[in-house]
């Protein structure tokens, strides 16, 4: 059987075993409890074994969990020894390594900068997509140089504490209004009717998983009776290409931010601000403290700032 297990997630499992609590382990790792809980669940699914007994007071290892803990600790110890012995490879100063939350604007900036430098004799560019926890984790662990993500602007002080604990330096990019995204040929647009969450509640909603889960929950909570109608007509998607295709060929709608470069020309869809939604999305990026950005990373940030503002 083939196993696809992330070494960092092994370390997370060990931390949960030591703490006896997913909540306490999440706090010590500076990630969210739901995210850590999902990692443990996925690990159990991959192994086909239950690793923890759950109770209100915390978690305890099952017999399979005890056995797996010894293997996990041995693997992590061996990897630490290997890392100490390995000679660092020369750094590619003109390679771009980015982790991002799922927004086409960020992806377009990455693509644009990479293509500008396509004639370099050597390069090794990397782009990862995930939620905010995963982006911060990628930067803190040295997987990438730059992590770009978004959050409710009212959570800024809370986020600042997380950045400090992780040893990350935060840089503000832009505050952006949430938008409704729908086809340029949507019936409501063709009929000249207003576009808002109330008038759209009878249409299918496309939920792009991992992009805007945090603020969609808030918008739904404030939707009243429309919320129940909306909840009965949802299609969950994890593919950007599928989302854009369905937007362009149906009367479904989604939630994101303002137009990106190819949105109208390539996918025949448009973005309309959500009026009086009560909050803004703050976009920013993090780097490891006291580590200067390479010139290509600075070029990427400049391009992204232009697209977001």
Task: Describe the protein.
With 309 residues, the chain is an alpha/beta fold. The protein contains 13 helices and 12 strands. The protein has helices spanning 7-19, 22-29, 33-47, 63-85, 104-116, 132-140, 156-166, 187-190, 213-221, 225-231, 240-249, 263-267, 295-308; strands at 52-55, 58-61, 97-100, 126-129, 146-152, 168-176, 179-183, 205-208, 234-237, 253-256, 269-273, 281-288. The strands form 4 sheets. The chain has a 5-stranded mixed β-sheet with strand order 4-3-5-12-6, sandwiched between helices. Helix 5 links the parallel strand 3 (97-100) and strand 4. Helix 2 (22-29) packs across helix 3 (33-47). It is globular. It starts with 6 loop residues before the first helix and ends with a helix.
Task: Outline the secondary-structure elements.
Blueprint: H1 7-19, H2 22-29, H3 33-47, E1 52-55, E2 58-61, H4 63-85, E3 97-100, H5 104-116, E4 126-129, H6 132-140, E5 146-152, H7 156-166, E6 168-176, E7 179-183, H8 187-190, E8 205-208, H9 213-221, H10 225-231, E9 234-237, H11 240-249, E10 253-256, H12 263-267, E11 269-273, E12 281-288, H13 295-308
Parallel strand pairs: 3-4, 3-5, 8-9
Antiparallel strand pairs: 1-2, 5-12, 6-12, 7-10, 7-11
Helix pairs in contact: 1-2, 1-4, 2-3, 5-13
């Amino acid at each position: 059987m083939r196993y696809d297990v992330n070494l960092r997630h092994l370390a997370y499992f060990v931390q949960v075993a030591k703490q006896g609590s997913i909540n306490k382990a999440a706090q010590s790792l500076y990630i969210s409890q739901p995210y850590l809980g999902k990692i443990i669940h996925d690990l159990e699914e991959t192994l086909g074994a239950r690793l923890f007994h759950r109770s209100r007071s915390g978690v305890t290892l099952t017999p399979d969990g005890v056995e797996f803990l010894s293997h996990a600790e041995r693997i992590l110890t061996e990897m630490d020894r290997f890392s100490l012995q390995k000679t660092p490879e020369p750094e590619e100063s003109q390679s771009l390594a980015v982790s991002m939350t799922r927004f086409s604007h960020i992806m377009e900036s990455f693509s644009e900068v990479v293509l500008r430098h396509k004639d370099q004799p050597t390069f090794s560019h990397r782009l990862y997509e995930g939620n905010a926890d995963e982006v911060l984790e990628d930067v803190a662990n040295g997987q990438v140089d730059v992590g770009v993500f978004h959050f409710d602007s009212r959570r800024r002080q809370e986020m600042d504490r997380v950045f400090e604990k992780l040893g990350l330096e935060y840089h503000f990019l832009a505050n952006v209004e949430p938008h409704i995204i729908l086809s340029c040929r949507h019936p409501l647009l063709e009929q000249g009717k207003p576009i808002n969450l109330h008038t759209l509640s009878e249409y299918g909603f496309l939920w792009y998983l991992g992009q805007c889960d945090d603020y969609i929950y808030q918008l739904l909570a404030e939707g009243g009776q429309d919320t129940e109608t909306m909840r009965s007509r949802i299609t969950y998607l994890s593919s950007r290409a599928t989302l854009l295709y369905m937007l362009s060929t149906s009367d479904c709608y989604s939630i994101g931010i303002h137009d990106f470069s190819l949105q109208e020309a390539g996918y025949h869809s448009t973005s309309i601000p959500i009026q009086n939604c009560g909050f803004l999305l703050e976009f920013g990026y993090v780097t490891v403290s006291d580590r200067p950005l390479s010139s290509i990373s600075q070029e990427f940030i400049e391009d992204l700032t232009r697209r977001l503002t």
